[in-house]
Amino acid sequence: MPRAKFQTLTEQMYYVLLCLSRECCGMDIMDEIPAMTNGRVRVGSGTLYNLLEQFLEAGMIRETRAEGRRRSYILTEEGKQRLEEEYRRICAQGADYRRIMGEEVSR
Questions:
Q1: Which CATH number is 11-101 given?
Q2: In contact, 25 and 73? CB cutoff 8 Å
Q3: pLDDT (tens digit, 9 = 90+) per residue, 33-74?
Q4: Other C-beta atoms lying within 10 Å of the C-beta of residue 93
Q5: Can you say whether the dihedral through the CA atoms of 42, 23, 45, 84 is positive or negative?
Q6: Calpha distance 16→35 (Å, rounded)
Q7: Cα-atom radius of gyration of the chain, to the nearest Å?
Q8: What is the pTM (predicted TM-score) of this model?
Q9: Res 1 pLDDT > 90
Q10: DSSP for 32-87?
């Protein structure tokens, strides 16, 4: 049985949605993700614009402004809920790891 779309998010998906907790455009997102992850995560323009289109279709974001080719977006309530669910899933994974591996995990 195929997995439901957006049941779990990739790192890139997660950080795109996190950026869109406030209004921004694609170029802002491409700059913000490496900054917020200390360069660990990057999103190329092709991937970004594909994700933005998918998120729009899924109702997770909405377009707020269009100035020429520059478009700005922000999370919808559905997008906020999905981002929160993913955050809780990631936290649960961390808790499982700590429970199994012990608290002496280096941070």
A1: 1.10.10.10
A2: yes
A3: 999 999 999 999 999 999 999 999 999 999 999 998 899 999
A4: 10
A5: positive
A6: 13
A7: 16
A8: 0.87
A9: no
A10: HHHHHTTTS----HHHHHHHHHHHHHHTSEEEEEEETTEEEEEE-HHHHHHHHHHH
How far is it, in rounded angstroms, from Cα 101 to Cα 22? 37
**84 with 6: CB under 8 angstroms?**
no
In the chain, where the domains are located: 11-101
The position carrying tokens 């269009």 is 66
66-90: b or e for each residue (b if 16 or more CB lie within 10 Å)?
Answer: eeeeeebbbbbeebeebbeebeeee
Q: How many residues does the structure list for the chain?
A: 107
C-alpha span between 16 and 95 (Å, rounded): 24
Task: Calculate the CA dihedral of residues 54, 18, 76, 46 and round it to 10 degrees.
Answer: -20
Q: Average pLDDT of the chain?
A: 91
Separation in Å, CA 25 to CA 8, 59, 92: 24, 17, 31
